[in-house]
Every structure is written in C-alpha cells, then in structure tokens.
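Q: I have 304 residues here and want to know how they pack in 3D. Can you give me a structure?
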Amino acid sequence: MPSAASSGVRRVTLTADHRSTPLTGLLAVPEPAHGPPRALVVALHGGGMSAAYFDGQAHPDVSLLALGARLGYTVLALDRPGYGQHAGMLSKGRTVREQVDDIGPALEEFVGRSAIADREDAGGVLLLGHSYGAKVALALAGDRPPRGLLGVDVSGIGLRPAELPEQGDRPGRFASRRLNWGPSFDLYPPGTFRTSQSVVAPMPRREADSAGDWKEWGADVLGRVRVPVRFTFAEHEAWWRHGPDEVAELTGRLTDAPRVVVDRLARAGHNISLGWVARAYHLRVFAFLEECLEADRARADRAS
C-alpha cells in the first residue's frame, strides 16, 4: 500500500522509452498563484530508503518536497532503480554506473517536457543526493548532466569510508542503528521510527555489493563535475571519514568545479532529512540553489 504523502505531493512514473524500466517517484510543484517554478530539484535517496525519505511524515517541517513547493521550486524525488513500485523488475538492483544509464534518459525526458525547460528564464536543475544517492548524483553530473544543470548538493558521502564498529562489511543491528541514525533517537521527531516504515526498503543485492567500488572510481568521477558542489557533513556522520584532511582530499578532486562548499550540521545523524534539523538543512539546500541561479544569471549577462 502506498505510504502517506504531504499535501500537494503526488506520485509519478518516468520512462524514457518503451524499453526502459519505469522509475517511480514523488513530485511537488508550486501553486500556480506563485508563478512558474524557479528551478527543478531532483532528489536521490540513499541505500535502503525510498523517495519518501524526502517527504518525512513525522513532523510538518521535515518534508523537502512540501517546503520546496512552498518556496517556488518543483521538487522531484525519485525511487532509484531497484526501489519503488517497479522494484521487482530489477530485484537485484543496479550499480552506480548502471543507475546513471537508467536515470539519465528518464530525467532528460522529464526536464524536456517540464515548464523549467520551456521558459526563456528557465531556472535549471539542482541534483540533490543522499548517501548512495549522492554517488549517483555526482556520477550523473560528471558523466550525464541533465540539461540546465546548475549544481550538485550532497550529504552522507565522502571519499574514504570510516572503519566500521564491527568486523566485516555488514555491521550488526545495533551498530547499523548508530551508523544510520546517530547516537540518540532524540535527534528525530517523535513518531519518526513508526512513519519510517514507509520510507525504508530492502537494499538490492547488486547495489550493496557495489558500494565499496566508490573509493576506487569516485575520485575520477569528481574530476569530471563542472558545476558548483556543496557537501554537508552531519555532526554524527559515521559512515564516512570527514576530518580536515579527508575533506581536503575530497574537495581537491573537484578540479573542474567552479565552486565547492562544505557545510557542517550540528545535532544531525546520517539520515539528515528525517531529523529535527531537516528544515534547517533543506533551507540551506535552497539557499545554495539560489546562489547557483544567481551565478548562472551573471554568466548569461557576461555572455550577452
């Protein structure tokens, strides 16, 4: 049964052609009275989650989709390949590279028929990614950027994984709880773990097995990104190393990005968009998008 959604958020299905595996997701658009959308945000969830990660139901302030529409943006949160209504068609999942091949064409078609693409003052696109979805967002930006790409905003990602608190690649239940949620459930609104049952989803096998590949080829992907990039590190991020040296190495790989921003977020665990800090984090996402829009306008003025 479909999970609850915020007011104004509807379910959508994207396909690039009849041969493609359909991608499901959630879409929020501004009210017509607010004028045309300022830009499009495409949000990609992490492993073991779904598009509903960006429409948390535990508190009205948590939903990225609802906030974005109120601020005048179109927000599209996708179920990545192997998740959502059509997960059974790719029950073993897809690697990052394969997901780029799946999402790229569908996103190009969506952007091509959206109001964002039709207007002369089209705002453009921001790719927003969390955790495994951050890898996909960065790979899309580097290898298959959608038309009008303005920037990439990612969280829950680094270049070098942290040492897990237990031996092996798959920590036990208690360790996984701390890795994903942080040291205390007080970081999240009451009811988060009841409503999150509609957010979590099994992580497909091929996606899980390919997670370790990022440290080998991620650095190469970063070197091909040619738009501004923002990283957000939660105070209690435990999956990735994010000390000064590790962050400097990460950002140093973005040799062609015109601007790189690094933010820190206090009182946040790995799953930032479901916590009490979600609203503050999401507002920073839209602030970064506004900066990208202004930089794009300035470039257009110089070109004319």
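Q: Anything worth noting?
A: The first strand starts at residue 9 and ends at 14. Strands lie at 9-14, 23-28, 40-44, 74-78, 125-130, 149-155, 229-234, 260-265.
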